[in-house]
Write a structure and sequence with these properties.
By secondary structure, the protein is mainly α. The chain has two domains: about 1-100, Rna Polymerase Sigma Factor, Chain: A, CATH 1.10.1740.10; about 110-195, Arc Repressor Mutant, subunit A, CATH 1.10.10.10. It contains nine helices and no strands. The protein has helices at about 5-15, 20-40, 45-65, 75-95, 100-105, 120-135, 140-150, 155-165, 165-190. The chain is elongated, with a radius of gyration of 19 Å. The protein starts with 6 loop residues before the first helix and ends in a 7-residue tail after the last helix. The relative contact order is 0.09.
């Protein structure tokens, strides 16, 4: 096996009974999928549950022939995890056991900024806090595109597929989000300079 199998080749081998091929698929994509889930779900155990549920759903869909390969396996997996996250928050909302503050802090739980220099680290943490606060003032669709692009590192093509909109719509939401963030910065006199 000198050349690396594509996602589709691994899926086909898995369907034919090679269980290890699915493990290889999970290993290949686990960091990206788990990082995405962790952006929304602060609780580590719950994030792991959603991660496992995502791949259980993937297995069920593949085995029942519902997966059609179009070279977008990872986008399809991300959409499944996205839907499971939304289902989780819907259930929580229905049970009325969580406040909006907890919901917001779950969404923006990210340890993106890390520096050895203690002073720079402190400044970056303050900037991160300011940015998170500002993002919470954005409409849901704009906030989502910021999270997917800057925290999860997805392309606009992937964002469009996950959120089920056109690339132009995703780009438009990002443009409006940035315009609104600038307005918020001006209104609140926030400077995000490290110097």
């Amino acid at each position: 096996m000198s050349k690396m199998n594509s996602d589709y080749e691994l899926i086909m081998k898995f369907i034919k009974g090679e269980q290890s091929c699915f493990e290889e698929l999970i290993h290949r994509h686990k960091n990206k999928v788990f990082a995405y889930i962790s952006l929304y779900i602060r609780d580590q155990a719950l994030a792991e549950d959603i991660f496992q549920d995502t791949f259980l759903k993937v297995i069920q869909s593949v085995k029942s022939g519902r997966y059609i390969d179009n070279g977008k396996f990872i986008s399809w997996v991300m959409r499944i995890s996205h839907n499971l996250i939304i289902d989780h928050f819907r259930r929580v909302k229905q049970m009325n056991t969580v406040s909006n503050d907890n919901y917001e802090s779950d969404i923006f739980n990210s340890t993106k900024f890390a520096e050895n220099n203690a002073e720079a680290d402190m400044i970056k943490r303050q900037i991160q806090k300011d940015v998170r606060k500002m993002i919470t003032h954005l409409p849901d669709d704009q906030r989502e595109v910021i999270i997917l692009r800057h925290y999860a590192g997805l392309s606009f093509k992937e964002i469009a597929e996950i959120t089920d909109v056109s690339i132009n719509t995703a780009l438009g939401r990002m443009r409006y989000a940035l315009i609104n963030l600038r307005k918020i910065m001006d209104e609140k006199k926030i400077s995000l300079s490290l110097s």
